[in-house]
Amino acid sequence: MSYSTTNSFIANNQPWKVRLSIAWLAMLLTFTCFGTVFPFLPLLIQELGNHDYKTASLWAGIISGSASTCMIFTAPIWGRVSDLYGRKLPVIIGTFGFGFLMLLAGFTTNIKFLWLTWVGFGIFPGPGMVTLSLISDLLPKQHLTFGIGIFTSSNFIGFAIGPLLGGYIIDNLGFRPSFVIGFICLIIAGTLILFLIPNIRMQQSSQYSINPLKIYPESLQFIKDTNLKPVYFIIVLVMATGCLTMPIIPLFFKSLVDDTNAGIVTGICFTINGIAGGMAAFIVTYLKNHISPINIIVCAFLLSGIIHGAFISINSVYSTYIVLAIASIFHGAAVTLTTSMLAENAGNRKGTSFGIAHSISSIAWGGAPFIGGYTGKIMGLRSPFLVNAFLCILSAIYSMHISKENNDLDKTSIQKVTLSNSNQP
């Protein structure tokens, strides 16, 4: 197996910092789009179906979960496409595909059509994860952790800009313009990647194909044959604790303020959270040189669990801002480190490795919001935050156990990922 680099308008000797900057900008636009739309899904459902907050929270969990359920099955296929046809192809398909689905969703008139567009999001490759696979092969190995930290910050900063923009637009113009702006952001992002980022084309053995009947068994064998199983499981926990309360946050704020300000108040919250997570993504790349990544992750889970416990008594917008911002710092650190651990040790099969990571992350993205939405419906809006606190504590305990059982995790020197036959021509 070997690499070859192809490009559109940019030379193959393009400086890695330029590549990183372009990818950062593309993902900033992508997650600005996501932040403009996704956090307000429960409010859109309330408007379309005239539902109370309990029913809206449940529907938000179901719709979000539908997209994630599809990703469980499609992500390994897109990972294989990345390995066979180049890292850039799934990124282009994902950004442009998400863009046109965003435009369709903006013109929906009922919940069923909205649900169908979200299923479409689950079929196309998620731009964030497939771009990570691309950028991790375009960065020098000695700068990989730093580069991924910078790149990951674009996700959080985009999710800082998007909700503030989306909240203002929704409160003043309605939901449809926010979807149109999301469409424009994604088209620009896809165009940047298409023309300004060189491609990594894998020269693979002919035995690999995109036949799902082969991909799924081979993906399971891939997990079995590597030492990345604990990393994958920690990724699931990081994603689950990060999105369990997502359907509830807008409704929680709506219970604290009048309806006319719910959008902007929610937007400010996600803006603060995005800035906090982005700062953590920067800082943790330096902390990693002094503290083992798994220990940072354990502390992040533990402290996030403690801070979520504050929702027992929170009754104001400002205290909610503070608590969720602190939790976002811990989440941003954990996301950056788990992604870095995966990229540093994924060997030559980064497409497959990140495809599997995306697939198992989708289990969390689908299951956790549904659990949060269902818990909010039957037990009230505070209960999902307390459930998340409990899950964070359990995740910290599990991560400590994994650290003891897998000493290599403390050194981020997990066995390089290869299939048993990866050395074949």
Walk me through what this model shows:
This protein is mainly α and 425 residues long. It is built from 16 helices and 2 strands. The chain has helices spanning 16-37, 41-49, 53-85, 88-106, 111-123, 127-138, 144-173, 176-196, 212-225, 229-243, 249-256, 262-287, 293-308, 317-344, 350-379, 383-405, and strands spanning 2-6, 199-203. It has a two-stranded antiparallel sheet with strand order 1-2. Helix 3 (53-85) packs antiparallel against helix 15 (350-379), helix 7 (144-173) runs antiparallel to helix 14 and helix 10 (229-243) runs antiparallel to helix 14. The radius of gyration is 20 Å and the shape is globular. The protein starts with a strand and ends in a 20-residue tail after the last helix. 56% of the residues are buried.
Rg over CA atoms, rounded to whole Å, is 20 Å
The succession of helices and strands, N to C, reads EHHHHHHHHEHHHHHHHH
Low-confidence stretches: 410-425
Average predicted local confidence, pLDDT: 81
Name the descriptors.
425 residues, mainly alpha, two-stranded antiparallel ribbon, 2 strands, globular, disordered C terminus
What's this, in brief?
The chain is an all-alpha fold and 425 residues long. Helices cover 75% and strands 2% of the residues.
Question: Helices and strands in order, then pairings?
Answer:
Blueprint: E1 2-6, H1 16-37, H2 41-49, H3 53-85, H4 88-106, H5 111-123, H6 127-138, H7 144-173, H8 176-196, E2 199-203, H9 212-225, H10 229-243, H11 249-256, H12 262-287, H13 293-308, H14 317-344, H15 350-379, H16 383-405
Antiparallel strand pairs: 1-2
Helix pairs in contact: 1-6, 1-7, 1-8, 2-3, 3-5, 3-9, 3-15, 4-5, 4-6, 4-8, 6-7, 6-15, 7-12, 7-14, 10-14, 10-15, 10-16, 11-12, 12-14, 13-14, 13-16, 15-16
